[in-house]
Write a structure and sequence with these properties.
By secondary structure, this protein is mainly β. The chain contains 3 helices and 6 strands, in the order αβββααβββ. It has a domain of 114 residues: STM4215-like.
């Protein structure tokens, strides 16, 4: 994953699988809320963990090279590291209390376990479930919130110039 937007669809499916809620939307989009039971999610990158791994592959030269060098190639380096994420999940409307409870230990159930493996996501834990109904004075609209802590591989790729090439002329006087 190089861009967080690559994970939106994966996170949407993960929230649906773990909570059992069918309607799952990305938070903070400024749209009208759906009717009935629904969940919102917001991915929050926290920090990188562990040692980086580097992979290099040959690419066509990005700068002009001297013909004497032949078919010169540059490198594209990709650095991969584990990134810790918090996936903040809000579940809203009737049935939210039951749905939020399903998040705990969801990584040990099928098909969630297989989904995590297939998408190379490491599940750490789920935070305490928080009842936001009273806090937000939304007495008629149940609202629960929890954070899913995950590890996901994050990559950054960039070009490395091996050499642009140059000519050397030796003159022997004497």
């Amino acid at each position: 994953m190089e861009n967080i937007s690559e994970l939106y669809d994966v996170f949407q499916q993960l929230v649906s699988l773990t909570s059992g809620v069918e309607t799952v939307i990305l938070a903070d989009q400024g749209r009208d809320a759906p009717t009935g039971l629904y969940a919102t999610y917001k991915p929050i990158p926290i920090r990188a963990y562990g040692w980086s791994q580097r992979r290099r592959e040959l690419t066509p030269a990005t700068e002009d090279t001297a013909p004497a060098l032949g078919l010169w190639q540059d490198l594209r380096e990709t650095v991969a590291t584990s990134m810790e994420f918090i996936l903040s999940v809000n579940i809203i409307n009737e049935g939210a209390d039951s749905a939020i409870m399903r998040l705990h230990n969801a990584n040990l159930r099928q098909p969630v376990s297989e989904f995590l493996y297939r998408n190379e996501i490491a599940w750490r834990y789920v935070s305490t479930c928080r009842n936001l109904t009273g806090i937000l004075q939304a007495g008629i609209q149940p609202r629960w919130q929890a954070d899913i802590h995950l590890f996901i591989e994050h990559t950054v790729s960039y070009e490395l110039l091996r050499a642009a090439g140059f000519d050397i002329q030796l003159t022997n006087e004497g």
